[in-house]
Amino acid sequence: MDKDVFEVVLSKSTKDLKIKRILEMKSEPALPKGENFASTIFKITLKVVLGNGRIATKSFIAKKDDTDEPSNDFKLFNPEVLVYTNILREMGYLMEEYGDTEGPLWCEFIHFSPYDSTIIFEDLMASGFSNVKRTEAQDLDHARLALRSLGRYHALAKVLEERGLIYKDDYKPFPFLNNEAHIRNLIYGGKQALAKGMRLGWGEEWAEYADKLSKVSFEEIFKRIKDAGNFDDNTFKCLNHGDSWNNNMMFKHDWEGRPIEMRFVDFQSPHYNSPCIDVTYFLYSSIKPSVRHQNLQSLIELYHESLTSSLDRFGYKGSKPSLEDINNGMERLLFFGLCFFTACFPCVSSKRTDAVDFDLVFKTNGEEGYNINVYYEAGVIEKMEEDVKTLVKIFDS
Length: 397
Prior knowledge:
This is CHK kinase-like domain-containing protein. By secondary structure, the protein is an alpha+beta fold. It has helices spanning 3-11, 77-97, 140-162, 175-178, 180-201, 207-215, 218-228, 276-285, 289-313, 323-332, 334-349, 358-363, 380-396, and strands spanning 19-29, 39-50, 55-65, 109-113, 118-122, 129-130, 238-240, 249-253, 259-264, 271-273. The protein is built from 13 helices and 10 strands.
């Protein structure tokens, strides 16, 4: 997007009417290589003249679709634009209606250019927000705030559904529970890569576990995962965020470094199903494994309290899920969570920028594209051993 076009875009933005003219415009990558998997994120810095004549610096974030093939499931910018312009706008109105003072759970949407598949957002970093480092994963304080925020988001979505503003049939199923290509390439392929890495770097005592993992067929994994996501009509369901992992969350911290606010920054993959899917995806992709092991039930209880209290706060009239309902949903999804964690966590937590080549993964049906070295980096065994043993026990049962 050139300077003149961007100037017109900002002149139509209610928040930035005070910008009169752009003097200079600079674009640079907003994230290091390896931090984003389906798009390129740019930071746009502007030197502008304000309405009062003062010169100021403004910054924005641009996200550009990286995929080449229109059929690729990662090409989801249009759904994200619809979420921003419809769903999140209505959530904002709902919060105003009930006097909610906790603040939004999203950043401000500025503009979408369909010609080059680029979305412009506010720059949350300019307001003091930052990511938890992907390589470190979230601690307990960040995980608690993230789950509280998920509960609020799910409740807002359910109230909008009750008002006829969200239609479940408008959304595709969650690919990691339904799409054969995603499960074969990203979960089964990652599991096979893990087994290879275990043989190379985990020691002889892990050889039996590696053999058992490698012998489990794709057909068995696909059936189990698909069955896990097939919740019946009596289940409490709502619009899920769809990609609720660490890199899609930004936090503001107090002076002691404790997280006090959170924003979701990616709404490319919304889907309609049990909210336990978002919770499971987050717990097994984004927090320190030791934190999950030691605090799993208390985190689930915190999420449930946030969901139900938010449903009450926003005037939901339907039946709310009990803690037992949420626990049952989480237990149902345990197999998926463990498969997803053991296959993908080494890649998403690795400091390497070449941990995975998704283009090659999809071209080879998951047989290539994974850097086997990440599965036996320093510290990986300690992070994964408990969940690997649990998963193998499930396979043996």
